[in-house]
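About this split. The held-out portion is used to measure sequence recovery: a designer receives only the structure tokens and must propose an amino acid at every position. Recovery is the fraction of positions where the proposal matches the reference. Here is one held-out target exactly as it appears in the evaluation file.
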């Protein structure tokens, strides 16, 4: 596979997913970036903005194992990881693996589960293995969590801890579509059956495990110029000295941003990174890794506001 081949495959994947979810091409690119970069994605948006449909469509476009967990307040860690069940016929315990043992895990409404259950995903997200009864078991080779959460409804939800947030490469805000796209969605759905309007059955897989391995090999060959790395480092370190930010981004955040920049360059058919790549990815990589101070929160400011001002102030390399 060449860089041009990867760019063409990315275009086909974007076009394929657009059959089920219109107007989300940029988000599709971010999820693909996370998959190649071995990261995870958190989709946040109000109900009815196709967060779960986007995750299902993306999974359908991949020839990879896929499982889904509907997170609820009574979900237990064993429901995620699995557990050892005693088999009376063989007189021994047998491991029954949970849904975490897959390639693409859709974690629907992840903030509805209590912290203990959320924490069950931490090891799998960072180490790609799960410890059950003291034994380590590897999850899927291409393991990625695509999680969704609703920021509006508070009753029966549990905020994700900072350690959990930090495991996500991107936090993507899924907003309402613009008027023209919304009109197109209504027109398309009115022309098919109600069942077909929510279906992803017509999506044909366009990326398999071998192609994914080839894409990662291409990304491994891309090196970032020191000026781009310095730009990434300057942005991340500036978050630690910003008055309205109580806790800035970590070294892991800087590494995640640099990693995502390499993948983005490859997806666009380039063997070099641009400052614009850093600017475009800074918000989804950093917005969930900083904590605003109390004054900023009282005044109603959000992480994106602070990061946008910071990016405007820092001069990009030429």
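Reference sequence for scoring:
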């Amino acid at each position: 596979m060449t860089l041009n081949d990867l760019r063409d495959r990315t275009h086909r994947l974007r076009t394929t997913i657009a059959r089920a979810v219109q107007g989300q091409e940029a988000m599709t690119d971010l999820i693909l970036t996370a998959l190649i970069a071995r990261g995870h994605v958190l989709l946040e948006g109000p109900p009815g903005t196709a967060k779960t449909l986007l995750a299902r469509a993306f999974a359908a476009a991949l020839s990879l194992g896929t499982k889904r967990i509907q997170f609820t307040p009574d979900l237990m860690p064993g429901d995620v990881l699995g557990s050892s069940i005693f088999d009376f016929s063989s007189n021994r315990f047998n491991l029954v693996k949970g849904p975490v043992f897959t390639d693409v895990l859709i974690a629907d409404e992840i903030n509805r589960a209590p912290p203990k259950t959320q924490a069950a995903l931490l090891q799998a997200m960072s180490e790609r293995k799960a410890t059950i009864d003291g034994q380590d078991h590897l999850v899927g080779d291409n393991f990625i969590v695509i999680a969704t959460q609703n920021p509006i409804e508070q009753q029966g939800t549990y905020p994700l801890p900072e350690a959990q947030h930090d495991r996500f490469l991107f936090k993507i805000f899924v907003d309402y579509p613009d008027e023209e796209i919304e009109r197109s969605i209504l027109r398309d759905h009115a022309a098919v059956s109600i069942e077909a309007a929510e279906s992803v059955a017509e999506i044909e897989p366009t990326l398999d495990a071998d192609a994914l391995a080839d894409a990662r090999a291409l990304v491994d060959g891309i090196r970032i110029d020191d000026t781009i790395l310095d730009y990434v480092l300057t942005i991340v370190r500036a978050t630690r000295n910003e008055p309205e930010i109580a806790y800035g981004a970590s070294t892991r955040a800087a590494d995640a941003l640099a990693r995502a920049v390499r993948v983005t360059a490859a997806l666009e058919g380039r063997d070099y990174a641009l400052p614009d790549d850093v600017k475009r990815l800074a918000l989804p990589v950093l917005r969930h890794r900083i904590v605003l101070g109390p004054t900023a929160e009282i005044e109603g400011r959000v992480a994106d506001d602070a990061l946008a001002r910071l990016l405007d102030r820092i001069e990009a390399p030429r």
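Annotator remark: The CA atoms of residues 96 and 177 lie 42 Å apart.
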